[in-house]
Amino acid sequence: MRNVRTSILHAVLSGAFILAGTAATAQCRAFAKNKCVPELAPYKFNESFNAAQLAPGEEAEVNLTFYSGQEYRVMVCSHPILGEVNWKLVDANNKVIFESLADEPKHHFDLKAASTTQMRVVVWVPTKGKSDMVHVGCVAILVGFKD
Amino acid sequence: MIAMQANKWPVLLALVALFSACGGEQPQQDQLQVDNGQDSALVADRMKKTKNIFYNIPSPMETASLLKKAGADYNGKILNDVKNVDKYTAASKQALNLGIYGADLSYASVFNHTQESMFYTSCSKKLADRLGVSTAFNDSTLEAMERSQNDRDALLDIISETYWNVDGYLKENGRDNISALMIAGGWVEGLYIATQVAKTNDSPELRQRIAEQKYSLTDLIGLIASYEVDEPALNGVKADLEALSALYADVATATGGESTVTQEGGVTVVGGPAGAATLTDTQLSAIRDKAAAIRNTYIN
After folding, report:
1. Cα separation, B20 vs B15, whole angstroms
2. pLDDT tens, B37-79?
3. Residue A63: φ, ψ to 5°
4. CATH topology for the A3-145 domain
5. pLDDT digit string, tens, across residues B225-279
6. CB distance from B49 to chain A under 8 Å?
7. Are B159 and B106 in contact (CB under 8 A)?
8. Cβ separation of B272 and A97 shorter than 8 Å?
9. Among all residues of chain A, which has the CA nearest to that of B156?
10. Nearest CB to A117: which of B65, B153, B272?
11. C-alpha dihedral over B182, B188, B194, B196, to 10 degrees?
């Protein structure tokens, strides 16, 4: 009987876990769509949705290919509950091409690629002193290109 | 109100005609694995492992735009026949061909071939319906596209948003594997189109863009490999991509040297490693043949 109860509890918790994850992803996408994508204009969104729920101390990164002669806008957008985040664009040799820190944030970086190159966007959420409350919020890394 | 309803008739008739162009409904005969909570440990593990690492694969629209800028021509004859849509009864084929028709749609739209765009939209909609993604791609999307037929920018925006909605809907509903197949199908079709166009419209710029797909191929393989499920469709696509990757192994891409950052007329210009990616005749021919062979197994 106890095993049955445990199994039911596990099933309920598993379901709750999946539902919570799905709801969080949906909210994150809605946030990115409504708040972030419009700020890519006049660049055209490249339709690649790179977003996650992050907590202070967590990181996210994405590899990007920039094609020669093309103009791009790289944008990092974070939910207000999380506050500003740190992010940087680094090349294959880890040279920092652009950096935005939370205390002096820049939400996007526009560039023209002189030659085709791969770079990496790294986002990390700063920790804010001692607090019992851990805020988790959506962070989206978006790219726009000029048609 | 009556006037509004009357004005909808031409749109509805056009939609009926579009659906007729793509054949009738077919039952779905197999299902891909869907994460619906049966194996939460697997889901949690995958989320933990891939949560913060993203794979940015160029969208069909971005690829079509690059092709156009590289001087490529439009050739509608090489695209997937709209009549094929009813052949796709397996969910994996539906997902791959949703990506393929999506790429054909982007190619036709970027090159301003509106009529073909509408046919490929119709095929994509049918496959989206069969995959249960009609929430993200509904009749109002078709109506909006009909209304924007003569406004290329508006049409491209609707196509982009629809692609994003479908991809997002699949991911939100634990069907990332179908999303990955759709992305892979679209990428393979983009490479197929580029290599076929290069037969008659060869140029150093086009060869460079084909060579540079080496980068996105690596990311695409990374994306597919992030699904640690033993699923024949995903395993098959991964093997196909790895076969292509082997052909790309010797393709020269720019390497070495530090990036430079300069300002030119108020624009930040980032220079990467010196030199451009190049492709020999033999390499182009091998990649073209392989892309065509893979694509033919997907569309047939």
Report:
1. 9
2. 444 444 444 444 434 678 889 889 999 999 999 999 999 999 9
3. -85, 135
4. Jelly Rolls (2.60.120)
5. 988 778 899 999 999 999 999 999 999 887 667 788 999 988 999 987 777 788 9
6. no
7. yes
8. no
9. A44
10. B272
11. -120
How much is the pTM?
0.83
What is the percent of chain A with per-residue pLDDT over 90, rounded to a whole number?
51
- B261 chain-A contacts, CB cut-off 8 A: 97
Q: What is the DSSP string of B227-244?
A: --S--HHHHHHHHHHHHH
ipTM value, please give it. 0.79
Contacts of B153 in chain A (CB under 8 A): 147
Q: What confidence tier does A8 reach under pLDDT thresholds 50, 70, 90?
A: low
Domain locations along chain A: 3-145
Rounded to a whole number of angstroms, the distance from the CA of B2 to the nearest CA of chain A is 34
- Strands ordered across the beta sheet of A96-100: A96-100, A86-91, A117-124, A59-66, B53-55
Residues of B with Cβ-Cβ distance to A85 under 8 angstroms: none
Name the closest residue on chain A to residue B39, using Cα atoms.
A14
Position B3 scores a pLDDT of 43
